Request: fold
Amino acid sequence: MRNKFATIALALLAIGCTTANASTAGEEEYIAATEIHKTLDSEITNLENNYPGPKAPATLEAVEKLKEYYALLQTSAQKGFPPAMYMTAQIQGSQTSSMYNNKKEICNLLSQAAEANLLAAKHANYYFCSRNGIPFSLDTEEASALIKPLEDALSLSDPYKNFYPLPTIKLPFCRINDTSPTPDIENTNPFTLLTMARKPPLSYEEYLADIHFLLYFKHHEQNQALAEQHKEKSRELGCPGLSFFEPKNT
Reply:
C-alpha cells in the first residue's frame, strides 16, 4: 500500500513539474521573434542611414530576418498569445498603408488581447479603435464609456508584465512633446519607411502613466481633486507630457 501511495505521489509531482515548466501556447515563437528583433532593430537603423541598394548582402539579410520575424509573430498570434496578437495589430496599425484597410482585423486582434488583460491592448483599443481620441472631450458620456476599460485596468493585474516594453499603436499623450524628424522624401529607402512607422516602446509603468494622464483630462472640470490625484500619479510614473500643459516659467 505504501508503494502504491509513493507511486501516486511521484506521478502527481511529475504532473506538477510538467505544468510548471510548460509555456503558454505561442510563447516560444514570440520569444524567438523578439530575439530576432533585438538585432534587427539596429540593422534597420544602419540601413536607413547607409542604404547599399536592394541586392546588397546586408539588405537581403535584413529582409530575410524580417520575414522570419513576421512569420514567428504570426504563428504566435494564431496560437492566441496576447503579446503577439498585440504586436501584429501594432505593426499594421502604425503603418499608413494598412491602418485603414485592415482596421477591423486590427481591432479584433486588440480586443482579443485586451480580454486577456494585456494593458497595452486596452490602451491601443482606446487610441486606435474608438472614435474619441481627443483628451479635451473626455468628460462626455460617450468618452466615459470608452475610457472605462482603461480606468478599470488600473485595479487589474497584467499577466504579461514580463513582455514589456511594448510599442504604442499611436503616439501617446505622455509623449506629446516627442517630435519626429521630417524625412527627405527624395532620398527615402524601404528602411526609412520602417523607421518612420516606429512608435515609442513603453514600459508597463509608462502605460499606466498615460492612462492616469487621460483620466486627469476626464475629471479636470467635474472633479478637480480626483483629477489632481491622477495627475500626480501620472507624474510619479514618469509622464513627460505633463510639462506641455503646465505654466511655463518666465
Summary: The beta strands are 166-167, 201-202. The first strand starts at residue 166 and ends at 167. The longest helix spans residues 27-49. The radius of gyration is 22 Å.
